[in-house]
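Reopening: DUF2961 domain-containing protein still failing for me.
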Amino acid sequence: MTTQGTAGMARLTAGRSRSISPENPTGAPGAGGRATEGTGAHAARDLGRGWKVSPSIEIAAGATAVLGEIEGPATIRHLWLTTHSKHWRSLVLRITWDDAEVPAIETPVGDFFCSGWGRFAQVSSVPVAVNPHGGFNSYWEMPFRRSARLTLTNIGAEPAVVYFQIDYELDAVDADAGYLHTQFHRSNPLPYREVHPIVTGVRGAGHYVGTYLAWGVNSRGWWGEGELKFHLDGDEEFPTICGTGTEDYFGGAWNFDVPGSGYTTFTTPYLGLPQVIRPDGLYDSQQRFGMYRFHLPDPIRFATDLRVTVQALGWRSGGRYLPLTDDIASTAWWYQAEAGGTPGDELTADALEVC
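Support: Ran it again with your exact input. Result attached.
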């Protein structure tokens, strides 16, 4: 069964718990803590085997590390990861289900954990938690039937030390369980009078469950008048679901502006504005924001296809909307019947760089 959660806390199942980390790279029973070499070997030299010999891995510049390969049926219940913040946009997380040709999940590791700007901000949501100082936690339910392969690719110029743990359950997967997918896009800058793509090219049946935006403002004034639009099942120019404004979609109101306090951060189980980076009068000259909405109680279901966009609008003279040319990066999550992914943008170091 793929559904556990608090409602099933007392329910006994036939599932078997496993965990992959640098201390147990295969997840096999009784195989943890057996390393004789690793990043902690020098510190454990007086204690020996079993004393935190291999707590992390180092990924060379340009290299790909396999975090885990798991035979199913199983469900990943929790993924914990941490690395230095300078690597949050230069490490690319990919997850492939059931030996598909295209990974279903492909996104910078920081954006997958709602941390796109390379700076810490507390996130306290149901599927994603980010804790001091850069403790990334994913509670996305990730069922698969035959296999899962998780990798990290270092597209940066420096080696990255990564600590991680993949907690999963070996058990049957329900016939109607979907595979978790992501798509990443960045518009830097967004062309004038164009919309930013959040999801493109998705075909098949599924339901949409989450949006994270890392939004960098390139103009003065308010930036969030634009609408999010969900084009479902053959929608062309006009969508089935159309919001009323960016801050409205993320559960806020009136510019996220508390009178006397200005932009005010918040983090809740399903939506939040956890990050506001304010100008410092020197090199941080532009305002930057991070915000999420998770459609877990209110998934957006589609039968044949899905396209999601967001407008970037501010205000100009005469009470007219001003199309903006901002720096917008988006990560989208959805579940789908098919295991294979739908690629977003090409993820290169220059395209992802925060500057």
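The chain has a mean pLDDT of 96. If you still see a failure, please send the error message rather than a screenshot.
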